[in-house]
Each structure stands twice: as C-alpha cells, then as structure tokens.
Amino acid sequence: MSKDAKKILHLKINPSIREYTYQSVESIIYVDIDGYPTVWCAVGHRIKIFDAITWNDEITDMKLENKITCLMHEPINSKIWISVLGNFFYVMDVQTRSFNQKIQIHSDIIICIINFEKIKKVLTASANGEIFVWDANKLEKIDSFNTFQATGKQLKLIDIKTSAKYLLSIYLKQIDIFDEFFQFKETLKFNCGENNELISCACLSHDPDSNEEFLWVGNTANGIVSVWSLKNFELKMRIGVYDCKGYRSFLSVDDLAHNDSIRSLCCVENKFIISGSGSGDGSIAIWRPERIKRKTIAGSINKIWNEF
C-alpha cells in the first residue's frame, strides 16, 4: 500500500474473521443508538454490528435464513429494514434487535430499500419493476406502481435512487425519472456503443452554489463517469479515471486497500467513509476523506463545467 493510501486509511477490519470462508460485505449502514455509534454490516447470512468508537470487536452477530442483500436505517421509528435474497424483507427494532415483521409481498427479488424524503415514505423495489410505498410508522403498504407499466419498457431494474424531487429507476442502459407522484418525467439514455458501457452504479450530489442536483453514473466497461443535471436532465460532462475497467461503487484512492471489488459504501457523520469488499477479501476499511489530496477537481460542478 502506498504512503498516500496509508494516510487516509484509518482502520481495516475483517467481519468474516470467525467464518470458514470470507464473505462479501453487501451493505453497510451507520446507526446512532441514543448517542452510541454503531456500524452494521451485511455479510452473507449474517448481520455484524461493530462499536464505531473502539472498533475492537463485534457487538452482535445475527444470522438470518437467507443471504442479506440490503440494509436500510429508518431513524424516526428506530427500525432497520433488511432485504434478503428472495422476495421478502424483515423489519427489525434497533433497540431490542427483535424482528417486528417479515413481509412477503414482492413477486421478484428485492433489489433496494430506500427512504424517499420528499414524501416521507419508505420504498421497496424488485427486479421486475415493482415498487411499493410504505408508511414506516404503521408498517403498512399505502401505494404501489410498476416502472415497466409506467414506461411500457420491459427492462430489468437494477437499482433505485431518490433525489430531493425525483425517484430514479436505474437499468443497465438507461435511467427513468419519476416525480413524487410517480408520474414519468424523463429518460436518460446512455450510448453503450462499442465500449459496451452498461450502468453499474449511480450517486447524487448537491451543488450549494446553484442549489442544483447532479446524477453521477458509472459503468462496467471503463473509468468514464457521466454527470447529468437533474434541473434540465442534460448531460453536463463525462470525466474519466485513467486505467479503470469499470465501477462497482464510487470510491477512489491512490492504492488498493482491498483485494477484491468494493461492494458497499457508507458515510459516517461526514467524518469517515467505510468500504466493504467482495468475498475475495471480505474486509471493511475505514477512511478519513479529509486527508485525500484533491489533485484535479475542486469547487462546485458548475465551476468545473465552466472550465471546459
């Protein structure tokens, strides 16, 4: 590992240390329990909870019947929503670590659970385009829609994201945008062409100077990142990382801390970034982002755009 990487790497932990084989860290969330900071990791069939102050050892190790694919913290009701490899999910109480409910309503594999702050509701989504809207207080389904029926396109849904205004349904070659009433607004199409640029991950950023939101999209083929404005749905720019063969999630350091692809990322109180790796490595790494030396890009995205 280079000196630059060592400067920003705070700690590295292996959640699979007591297992027979290393497992991929599929999801990481930060949970503050009455001022006591914890980090929850989905590792195979298990949820491993770590003390985020000492990082000494696991606080709790819980095993589920299926492989865990997603964790989502719903802080208002102090609940953890857990999807597994199948068409059902669990809701767990943070304090008691007991399961409130096991809900089986989707007809396909659940790919994402997310808070939609605009409407103050929780969304669950499956690969066949089903999206259910939940009242998190009552754990009741209050609405549903299907992205395929809304757009007339039979595409496999790989992820969903929410911005301040929109719901974004992500497929391999395009992203469909819906408003808070789940009305279709726009399609962002990607030129897959000869490079076979299939979408692999996406994240959102906010520019405080212009109060504008941007969508950053990575692909499976190369280091190109496409940046779209959610104000007018225009492609603002495409920027690249040299010698990159595609993205699994967005995190860039000067050297490797993991020996496998990064499967999950989590931000802790704007102080640390936690990365979880695939089963070839099976570890989590804690980073200090304020120590990263920014060599090329600084300031707001509009300032970056004006330089081109």
Secondary-structure blueprint of this entry?
Blueprint: H1 3-8, E1 9-13, E2 25-33, E3 36-43, E4 46-51, E5 58-63, E6 68-74, E7 79-84, E8 88-93, E9 99-104, E10 110-116, E11 121-126, E12 130-135, E13 140-146, H2 147-151, E14 159-162, E15 167-170, E16 174-178, E17 184-189, E18 199-207, E19 212-219, E20 224-229, E21 235-240, E22 262-268, E23 272-277, E24 284-287, H3 301-307
Antiparallel strand pairs: 1-24, 2-3, 3-4, 4-5, 6-7, 7-8, 8-9, 10-11, 11-12, 12-13, 14-15, 15-16, 16-17, 18-19, 19-20, 20-21, 22-23, 23-24
Q: Tell me the β content.
A: over 45%
Number of domains: 1
**Major sheet: arrangement of strands:** 1-24-23-22
Largest sheet entry: 4 strands, antiparallel
CATH fold call: Methylamine Dehydrogenase, Chain H
Per CATH, which architecture? 7 Propeller
Mean pLDDT across every amino acid position: 79
Shape: globular
What is the percent of helical residues? under 10%
- Report the CATH C-level class: Mainly Beta
SSE order: HEEEEEEEEEEEEEHEEEEEEEEEEEH
Question: Strand pairing plus helix content: what structural class?
Answer: mainly beta
Task: Report low-confidence residues grouped into runs of 5 or more.
Answer: 251-255, 291-308
Radius of gyration: 19 Å
Total count of strands: 24
